[in-house]
TrEMBL record:
Organism, as annotated: Glycine max
Pfam families xref list: Bet_v_1
Protein name: Bet v I/Major latex protein domain-containing protein
InterPro entries, sorted: Bet_v_I/MLP, Plant_def-hormone_signal, START-like_dom_sf
SUPFAM superfamilies: Bet v1-like
Family recorded in the similarity comment: Belongs to the BetVI family.
Membrane recorded as keyword: no
A GO cellular component entry from the record: nucleus
SMART domains recorded: Bet_v_1 (SM01037)
Keywords carried by this UniProt record: Alkaloid metabolism
GO biological process, one term: abscisic acid-activated signaling pathway
Gene Ontology MF: a single term: abscisic acid binding
Keyword ATP-binding: no
Annotated ranges, domain Bet v I/Major latex protein: 1-153
Length: 161
């Protein structure tokens, strides 16, 4: 069984600025600092932010779904501003999923505007199809909102100087 969830959020910063945050490790650092209610820890276990980088995510107690997992950066396209990660250990894989991928895409909307499009794609074995109900776009949407607030704050600080 294959499924897909999407979320889009307009950002009031240029796509290049948004990509600086989403395209490397910066978003992981921000999430670890600013969302303790969602993530207990975000640890770099391998790599430098490029393709092949592995992060270990540990969710805060009480967050629905798996307690944590390791994800690997499988695609980073700086030209098209697309980054994909896949769960490679634990988490959804222990619940019968054969694929759990998150794609972040920064889309240029105008000179001072962009859209962060987040997509979750998953495949789950037929015998575990009921576990598909555990997949939610909410954590990704929360991260997008956090990023928007962070980018807006930085923009305001730059304009004030």
């Amino acid at each position: 069984m294959f499924g897909q969830l999407e979320h889009e959020l307009e950002l009031h910063v240029p796509a290049s600025e948004a990509w600086d945050l989403f395209g490397a490790l910066e978003i992981g650092k921000l999430v670890a600092q600013e969302l303790p209610e969602l993530f207990q820890k975000v640890e770099l276990t391998e790599g430098d932010g490029g393709v092949g980088t592995v992060l270990k995510l540990t969710f805060a107690p009480g967050v629905p779904g798996p307690a944590g997992y390791k994800e690997k950066f499988t695609k980073i396209d700086n030209e098209k501003r697309i980054k994909e990660t896949e769960v490679v250990e634990g988490g959804y894989l222990e619940l019968g999923f054969t694929l759990f991928r998150v794609r972040l895409e920064v889309i240029e909307k105008g000179e001072e505007s962009s859209i962060i499009k987040s997509t979750i794609e998953y495949e789950v074995k037929e015998e575990n199809a009921a576990n598909a109900s555990l997949v939610t776009i909410q954590p990704v949407a929360t991260i997008a909102e956090l990023a928007k607030n962070y980018l807006n704050k930085n923009k305001a600080a730059k304009e004030a100087n």
